[in-house]
Every structure is written in C-alpha cells, then in structure tokens.
Amino acid sequence: MEIAKENNYQPNLIARALTSKKQCVFASLLPTSNEDDIFWKRPLAGISDAASELEQFQVRVDKFFFEHYNEKDFIKQTEAILRLQPAGVIFSPKFKKESQAFIKKLEKKEIPYIFLESKIDDCNYLAYVGSDGYISGRVAANLIDFGTSIENDILVINLAKDLDNGKNQGMKITLEIPTSDSDLIQQKLDAILSTNKNIKAIFITGSKVHKIAEYLIKKDLKEISLVGYDPIEKNIKYLKHGSINFLIGQHPYQQGFKTVKKLFDHVLLHHKITKDEILPVDILSRENIKLYKV
Question: Using CA of residue 10, residue 15, residue 20, residue 23, what is the dihedral sign?
C-alpha cells in the first residue's frame, strides 16, 4: 500500500479500484539490459516493483524490450504494443524519428504515454519522469571546468544513436560514436586526440563512461579528467580507481517506479498529474560513493 499512502488516496477510490474485476494493462518499452549496458536494470526494477504493488488493483505491466542501436527492433516492439492496445505506455524515446511515428499512432488510438530518462517536447505526452538534460549537462560542465584550465579543450562523447536530449549543451568539441564497441571507441578517440592535443577533459553523455575510462588507462592518459553519468557497477569500479573523476546520478529506479504510479493515477483514479517530474541529480566522487544508495 506504499503507493496509496504516498498519494493520500481517499478510501472510496481505493475500494473502487480494489473491487474492479477488469484488468488494466500498461506496457513499458525499454532498451534491453545487458552486460555492456546494465543501466536499464534500475528503471526496469522500479517498474516491476510498482507493478507488484498495484497487482491488488488489477494492474499489470507487460514489458517489451528493444536491442540497442537497432531501429528496426524498436519499430517491431512498438507494433507489438499497438496490437496489445494497453491502457497506457511507458517508454524511452531513444530513436527520435521512430519514436515520433510511434507517438502518432498512440495519439490516434488515444493511448496515454509517459517518457522516462529522455523526452520529445513537440508532442502531447502525458508526463515525463527524469532529469533535466540541460541542467545535468551544466552540472557536468561545471565539474569539468573546475579541474580544467581555461585554455584547454573539453571533449563531449555521445555513445548513443539519434539521441536528442540536450545533455551536451555548452561544451566545446563533440564526438559521435554510434556503438559502444571497444575497437571503434579506440579508433575514434585515437583520431580526435591525435589532432586535438589540447583536450584535457572528457564528458560522456550516457552511462558507458567506463568504456572511456578503460581507454584512458590503456593509453596512460592520466592528465585527462573524465566525467559521466550513472553509478552502475562498472562505472563505480573506475570511480574508485580514480580514472573517472565524477559520476552524475539520475535516480533510474525512481524514474521507473514513478512512471507506473503516474499511469495508475491518471487512468484508474482520474487524478491530475504533474506533467514534468524533474528528479535531482547527484554528484558522486570516490570520497562519497560509499554513502550513495543506487
């Protein structure tokens, strides 16, 4: 009953939902969590825990997954969701063009949808739960600026395909790497660092900052500072080692949990919900990481 207490629901609303015999089915669509990118385990855990709490209200969340960097698989999963005709959808719009096509179909069927982790502004989304991309990017920029001389350059690496969430605003040099393949990362970094000797700091916009830390260790580039997102196990390892200077936490578990709660509020309880729930970002170093709850 944690969700009910948290939202101060009236007893008659809870009773009505409890006695309903009709099952309410939501759908979630997230990237597949694998050993190379375990970030998505946390929002998935939040979605699963919220769904478990709401089982007593006849709520079910059907979970769909798409392969990273695979637009065709993303489209295939959206088609499966549309065939399901759920009462609401939670998804991360990793591919902008394909997400916009999905959104048009959802809106035509009048299915409400909620974004998590990133969002597309020019549409009629019900809600968004996540960090503010611009603010978290500025936090990262300030962290890098703090330890970088004014005459040195900063490299921003985007290890995601067709991603448009504003996290690299205000930076100097941007490098797009379409996949997290180690050989490709080395090839791209070798090329840009050999032609830009003045780069003394790197900011990576996603959770795969450990891939860049591995490269810096291999090349013995101790003079380059590194900042990235998300305290996943591999990132924490290199944060403690000192090859990552700072990590920015975005509360992925809460992102998943809160999106399910918002759909429940809107669809079953007809509550007015906050459209954009911006979660705080946490600055993590090797000195305070032991105190952080993921």
Answer: positive
